[in-house]
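Exercise 7b. Backbone tokens:
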């Protein structure tokens, strides 16, 4: 069904559909605000419970709690690969509002025998949980996510490691978690600003997934997750001219393994592009690998 997602109109239709599903889940059942029993996915505090590996958001943690993360990924394809290392910190400003600071580094970017490595665009993300509900069997949460990136990366390197100007992100998330199962989804968009006639294409994200608890044993939670992560990218404009060999759509299916304690979070996954359509002369993607390690205090 995703092969047709190669236009902004069709992306907008999909985004509206996802938003409708979110609102349906939120309104179709009234929650009684009773907390589920502390078993399965609920065996640890909610900041340590399973969540997506690639999809954005779901970084709400308790007030005054801090989490340090080290995330690494490897996106590979025909005559290209991109390796990122991203240290980050999440802080709970309140129980429903968090700030997330990321400083990505391009450890190794390679396309068509051109290589680069440098700092990428750092960004700060804010997330607010505008809805929370619970029953004796599940809890659910909806959030709005906004972020701004700063041009700390390089637009002169080949491949580039940044947009060369600030960019802005807006999205929303919804998740429902049971003792055994969890479900989530998140549409969003990044809009880059222009600099001297150069503007990178806007990015539209559509993400959905589910997971299942494997066990909660001796203070550990183990779970598996499968998420679908799609990105539609518009064409770039370079020196006032549209680049025909830019932009397109790719959709990854990414299974991952989760393990956590009251302090530690570990998640490892690998993804495969089940569909991809790129404009002009661009090589295809092959796989992605991702690792996320977190520590809460």
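Sequence design result:
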């Amino acid at each position: 069904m995703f092969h047709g997602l190669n236009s902004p109109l069709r992306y907008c239709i999909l985004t509206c559909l996802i938003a409708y599903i979110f609102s349906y889940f939120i309104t179709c059942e009234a929650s009684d605000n009773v907390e589920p029993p502390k078993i399965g996915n609920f065996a640890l505090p909610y900041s340590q419970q399973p969540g997506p590996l690639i999809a954005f958001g779901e970084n709400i943690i308790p007030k005054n709690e801090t989490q340090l993360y080290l995330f690494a990924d490897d996106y590979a394809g025909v005559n290209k690969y991109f390796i990122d290392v991203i240290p980050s910190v999440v802080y709970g400003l309140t129980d429903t509002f968090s700030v997330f600071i990321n400083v990505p580094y391009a450890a190794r970017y390679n396309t068509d025998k051109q290589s680069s490595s440098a700092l990428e665009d750092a960004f700060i993300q804010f997330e607010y949980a505008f809805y929370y509900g619970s029953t004796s069997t599940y809890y659910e949460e909806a959030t709005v996510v906004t972020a701004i990136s700063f041009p700390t990366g390089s637009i002169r390197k080949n491949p580039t490691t940044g947009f060369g100007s600030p960019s802005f992100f807006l999205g929303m998330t919804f998740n429902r978690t049971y003792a055994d199962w969890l479900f989530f989804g998140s549409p969003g968009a990044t809009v880059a600003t222009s600099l001297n006639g150069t503007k990178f294409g806007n990015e539209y994200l559509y993400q959905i997934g589910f997971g299942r608890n494997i066990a909660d044993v001796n203070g550990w939670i183990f779970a598996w997750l499968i998420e679908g992560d799609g990105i539609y990218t518009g064409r770039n404009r370079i020196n006032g001219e549209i680049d025909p060999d830019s932009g397109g759509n790719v959709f990854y299916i990414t299974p991952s393994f989760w393990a956590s304690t009251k302090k530690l979070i570990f998640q490892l996954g690998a993804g495969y592009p089940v569909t991809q359509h790129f404009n002009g002369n661009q090589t295809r993607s092959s796989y992605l690998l991702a690792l996320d390690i977190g520590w809460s205090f």
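Instructor comment: The longest strand covers residues 80-94. The chain has one domain: 2-296.
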